[in-house]
Write a structure and sequence with these properties.
The protein is an alpha/beta fold and 222 residues long. The chain is built from 5 helices and 12 strands.
Length: 222
């Protein structure tokens, strides 16, 4: 995680998480998921394009954001949590677009795990709940918080539950079919409104999410 000074740029100052996390089993094996980080990168570039200041906390991915985006490279869910906590006070909005692992090996090995006869039982433990940590911080007050709800289908009830349970301002409901794709089917749910966007490019979805952030920043609908 970088220790360089935070950018003193114009609002909105948007902290964005993106990509997967990698949870190490041993020095050569790890648990991860199919997230590419494309959605978060599109969001960071939309913020930059509209005159704001993004910081992108990016998990392992082959994709490269444009040079104007400040990138904090992380690997694990714990790394990502530390980066969000370190940059939270700077931001006026947080967009949690990353596919953060829910579990990590409880006892990662320092040496390569040797193959043996029979099955292997891998004990996992919960990773940090990043949004729960955000709720506990006094800097959370006044910030616009966006989450994502990913499922095999467009599960709006689960999206509404997460919106309330995690005290979000906006949640984007999409499906696992959107991983690595340029287009996805998305639905936005706010505290007192919702909007079905149908099939949309990730760039267009990024612009729509940013418009919600700008509404909040400019004193509009929350």
């Amino acid at each position: 995680m970088t220790a360089t000074p935070l950018p003193d740029g114009p609002s909105p100052r948007v902290l964005i998480t993106a990509g997967p996390t990698a949870e190490d089993i041993d020095p050569v094996r790890f648990l991860t998921n199919r997230s590419s980080g494309r959605m978060g990168i599109e969001l960071a570039e939309a913020v930059l394009r509209h005159g704001g200041t993004p910081i992108l906390v990016l998990g392992p991915t082959h994709l490269q954001p444009s040079e104007g985006v400040r990138v904090v490279r992380v690997r694990s869910a714990e790394n990502m949590n530390d980066a969000v906590q370190s940059h939270l006070a700077w931001a006026d909005s947080l967009v949690m677009a990353a596919a953060v692992a829910d579990y990590t090996p409880a006892e990662p090995l320092d040496v390569k795990l040797k193959k043996k006869d029979g099955d292997l039982i891998l004990r996992l433990k919960r990773t940090p709940d990043i949004l729960a940590g955000v709720r506990e911080r006094t800097e959370r007050q006044g910030k616009f918080i966006v989450g994502f709800s990913l499922d095999v289908g467009e599960n709006l009830n689960e999206g509404r539950r997460k919106l309330c349970d995690k005290n979000l301002d906006l949640i984007v409901v999409n499906t696992t079919a959107s991983f690595a794709a340029d287009r996805e089917t998305a639905h936005l749910i706010g505290r007192d409104w919702n909007e079905s966007l149908g099939e949309i490019t990730k760039a267009a979805l990024a612009d729509r999410i940013l418009s919600c952030i700008l509404d909040h920043t400019n004193g509009g609908r929350e």
